[in-house]
Every structure is written in structure tokens, then in C-alpha cells.
């Protein structure tokens, strides 16, 4: 906010570095730019500790992502009406990992569900997205994105915000660790800690099994039946 006139209050709310550690140069740059900030908060637990240690004169807090400041009713009012009538699995993958696409395809096939995908999410053609999905979405607006999550039988994702909205809409979901960009996993892991849903986070080969995902579903169904 270097363009903001002197004397104006500056606040950093639930910002994300997308990293699990900072270089000395990055740390110094951050300290330089937030010197005049009134309040600072981040959304990753480990980054809150790192920044607090680097800037003991400041108070660095851990706060929720802004999407979680609204409740389910608020997001229900924003989401589009149901876009796909058939029962489906929704996949929203930012990374290129072929294994998570294979297991999503395997799950959809076993349970007779349509596989709905949003391919090439990083602005380029991803080879593992070619022919991935029974229904491929290329023209969704934000309201549609919410709708695809809201009405899905199950959400497979490696995205922080798809995880957030799956939680908001109280959906069955599986979130995979980013193998090509592991530093992006820390804010997802913090979110899992807050929601006590670490069992939904798959980041090792032992959990890359359909049987593990089915066990998660059993826990979810049993909890719902008992409520």
C-alpha cells in the first residue's frame, strides 16, 4: 500500500504468503512495507510464528480467510441454481498430478456418478486435463463455481478455496496436497487443523487408495445418521 497517503490507516487482513518459510530478503521487504501498518494478520499458522519472530514490535495474528466471514445462508444466496441435474463428483485441481485425477475417475465410475471438471485452471493447457471429465466446464462465473460445489455428491480438490467452500456448504470432500508446489499446502493444513478434518487431507501414497476415501465417506455418513 505504498500508494496510500501518509496518515491513512493500513490493515493487512488474513493475507497469505503461499510459503512455509521466508528468505532473509523477503523478510526484510515485508518488514519495510508493513512498518506503518496498524494491524497484521495471516491465514497460515506457521507464517504467523515466522513473522512474529521477525517483527517482535508488531502483533501478528492468525485469522480466518475472508470467505469464512460469511455463513452458509449468505453463500447460498450467491450461488447459482443447480447447473447439472445428474448426481456428480466435482473436481477442481490447480496442480497437474495425474494420480489424483485417476482416483477421482475411479471413484466416479464405481459409484455411477458424472465426473465434472474445470480443466486447465492455471491459464495453460495441462496435458493431464485433456479428456478428463464427463462434463468439462470452461465458462463458469464465480456464482457457478459455488453451485458446482454446493450440489456435488463429493468434491475432489487441491485448492484452498474449494476446500473452504466445501466446508461452508457442508459437503463431502477430499483435499490433496500439491506435489509440485508443496509450500501451498500450509494454509490448507491450517484450515484442516481449525476444522479438525485433517483426515480429509491426502498427502502421502498410503492414502492414495479408493478404500481410504470410502472410509472417510463412512465416517461422514455415520456422523450424519447419528445427528
Give the overall average pLDDT: 90
Task: Tell me the series of helices and strands, N- to C-terminal.
Answer: EHEHEHEHEEHEHEHEH
Q: Output the number of helix runs.
A: 8
* Structural class label: alpha/beta
Main sheet, how many strands, which sense, barrel? 6 strands, parallel
Q: Regions with pLDDT < 50 over 5+ consecutive residues?
A: none
Summed up, what is this model?
This protein is of the alpha/beta class and 227 residues long. The protein has helices at residues 24-33, 45-54, 72-78, 98-110, 142-150, 160-168, 185-195, 210-226; strands at residues 11-15, 39-42, 60-62, 88-92, 114-117, 135-136, 154-157, 173-176, 201-202.
